[in-house]
Amino acid sequence: MNSRLQELRDILQSIDEQILDILQLRNQYIKEVGEIKKENNLSPLNEQVANDKEKSLIKYGKAKGLKTKFIRKLWRLIHHDSVKQQKDILGDIFLLQQIEEKKLKIINKSKKKLKKN
Fold this sequence. Notes:
The protein is about 85% helix and about 0% strand. It is mainly α. It has one domain: Chorismate mutase (Chorismate Mutase Domain, subunit A). α1 crosses α3 and α2 packs antiparallel against α3. The longest helix is centred in the N-terminal third of the chain and has 37 residues. The protein starts with a helix and ends with a helix. The mean pLDDT is about 90.
């Protein structure tokens, strides 16, 4: 095999491992974020923050020569896992929040129907 090819594969292996190390570090901070959200009774998902972050990362990635579609897919995968980790930390608190939100939606719909009649 071509020695340069093997050298490049070794370099890529090292970079891939560094990416995983960074993701593991990110997960440590996500756990801390989840704990803070739990203490403050906050939802694991803030859509506005997530959307702003995605736009920011797309802009940053495009400036680095990456394609928008790739950046969006990668970010959504990372973000989805982060939200899942936070939901796990919040546990029952998150489920109760969801139930309360659904109740409020049902109540609001009922009120609107009553006003129409």
